[in-house]
Amino acid sequence: MAPENDGIAPTALRSVLVTGASTFLGGYLVARLAANPDIERVVAVDSRVPSKDLMRRMGRAEFLRLDIRRPAVARAIARYEVDTVVHNAPSIMDSVEHSAAIKELNVVGSMQMCAACQRSPSVKRLILRSTSMVYGASGADPALFAEGTPARREPKRGYGRDLIDVEGYVRGLSRRRQDIDVTILRYQSMLGPRIKTRVGSYLSMPLVPTALGYSPRLQFLHEEDALAALEHATLVRRPGTFNIAADGVVSLAQAVNRAGHIRLPVAASLVQPIIGVLRDGSLPAMRAGHEGYLTYGRVLDNTRMRTEFEFEPKYTSLETLDDFIARGRTSPVISAAAWRGFETRAAIAATALQ
Fold first, then answer.
1. How high does pLDDT run on average in the chain?
2. Which structural domain range is residue 231 located in?
3. Does residue 22 lie within any of the structural domains?
4. Within a domain: 4
5. Is the pLDDT score of 161 beyond 80?
């Protein structure tokens, strides 16, 4: 028999506050929660106003334009007697480069949010959307990163460093307020036809610089699975830290080939500078936190996601990639038919040589 508190418990979700409401994950999560009649109140928070379409989708949710770095967030939590906070605000996938301003938003904003939750007697749950970048990426990495695996080369800067600090503040909150359940979701690289991420922009380049002599192993998470996991964490009480990633691994070479693009192998130290030269205004730089990733890749163990968090992605890594290619904004330089023809000829030649 399942524990009494397991499963969806509508009465426990009287008032939910979601930060980062102008982003894809935050805005669409608000829309889903607002459509759930078992949730009394949904409060959407962001310093930026969501698009008209996203605002329309939010329905009955109340939008507050405020900066989470300011004391106003504590007043909002008190005013709406928030019991569940979904902290989706840390920036890890926007089309802007990491900067001191972004670091302040991520770190100081999260400090302010944790302080507001600590002071509020109504808050009982906090869900943080984190990132797999906290594990770093190096040649000494294990084949799979489990939630308790320490980073072999901990990020010193960039988004990975920000989220290491943010996770520390959130765990500190759980120690100070042991009545608050904390759930940390470490998302793998996200891809999808609607969400804009650095990895998606990188794979959309017609000419893709890659590290010569390396074949990084990649793992993806579909945008719909990313959204569903965040909704699942909100509706179902599952405290703890969980990797959120799809099954399967795709090599960078395979990803570029399936997209119909052309690899440009260069020395590993030149990948970042050449991306900077080739990218246009629509492509964010793959700099801080991505150097090792484009050389060594990063793969997560998603066992606890299934057994303890009880979430099952609908898409594998390969299916996520294919959907991104089929419905996204990328255009092939070499058609899929041409690649299939090349692979067939290569297979025939390999057989003949045996």
1. 87
2. 11-341
3. yes
4. no
5. yes
Question: CA separation (Å) from 226 to 11, 31, 62, 192, 223?
Answer: 25, 15, 23, 10, 5
Outline where DSSP puts E strands in 132-239: 181-187, 189-191, 207-211, 217-218, 220-222
CATH of the domain at 147: 3.40.50.720
**59 part of a folded domain:** yes
256-305, pLDDT tens digit by residue?
Answer: 999 999 999 999 888 877 877 776 555 555 554 577 899 999 999 999 99
Q: How many helices (H) and strands (E) does the chain have?
A: 14, 13
Measure the CA–CA gap between 63 and 133, rounded to whole angstroms: 30
Contacts of 193-197 with C-beta under 8 Å, sequence gap 24+, read 193/223, 193/323, 193/324, 193/326, 193/327, 193/328, 193/329, 194/24, 194/223, 195/24, 195/25, 195/93, 195/223, 195/226, 196/24, 196/93, 196/94, 196/95, 197/93
Number of domains present in the structure of the chain: 1
